[in-house]
Amino acid sequence: MCVWHEHISLQRGFHHIVSTDISKVCIAKQQERYRDLPGLSWLCSDMTNMSEISRSSFDAVVEKATLDALLAAEKSPWDVNEVTAKRVHSALLEISR
Ligand SMILES: C[S@@+](CC[C@H](N)C(=O)[O-])C[C@H]1O[C@@H](n2cnc3c(N)ncnc32)[C@H](O)[C@@H]1O
């Protein structure tokens, strides 16, 4: 989820990487930035509901600073409101299915 490619290099054996983000602008910018690199694809998607992605279709999922975005309105990550807790739970279910 939301993985930019300077962090997972293709030289380390990852030949097909799908990056996601909820922001169309973000996806468009990264698509343009990495347009010359092979093996990358892009998806505008909400990490709390990724029904467009089939079950068990990834070997690995990397979450990098996206759960933080779900917690942005909270004062403490250890004491979140019910809505935030449900959204984080949904995102974790999406990662593990
Ligand atoms: C701190 S940035 C991390 C960016 C990227 N992972 C990186 O390593 O540079 C958080 C990102 O989460 C995205 N985001 C926020 N809520 C989201 C959601 N519900 N689903 C998917 N992406 C979301 C934002 O658009 C933003 O690009």
Give your account of this protein's structure.
- This protein is of the alpha+beta class and 97 residues long.
- The chain has a domain at 1-44.
- Helix content is 30%, strand content 10%.
- The chain has three helices and two strands.
- The protein has helices spanning 24-33, 67-70, 82-96; strands at 17-21, 40-44.
- The protein has a two-stranded parallel sheet.
- Helix 1 links the parallel strand 1 and strand 2.
- The longest helix is centred in the last third of the chain and has 15 residues, at 82-96.
- The chain is globular and about 45 Å long.
- The model has no long low-confidence stretch (mean pLDDT 87).
- S-adenosylmethionine binds next to helix 2.
Structure summarized in a few sentences:
By secondary structure, the protein is of the alpha+beta class. The protein has a domain at 1-44. It contains three helices and two strands; from the N terminus they run βαβαα.
Give the bound compounds: S-adenosylmethionine
Distance between the termini: 13 Å
Number of DSSP helices? 3
Q: Uncertain runs with pLDDT below 50, 5 residues or more?
A: none
Biggest beta-sheet profile: 2 strands, parallel
- What general outline do the C-alpha atoms trace? globular
* Elements, N to C (H/E): EHEHH
Strand content: 5-15%
Average pLDDT, all residues: 87
Helix content: 25-40%
Total strand segments: 2
| Radius of gyration (Å) | 14 Å
Based on secondary structure, the structural category is: alpha+beta
Strand order, largest beta sheet: 1-2
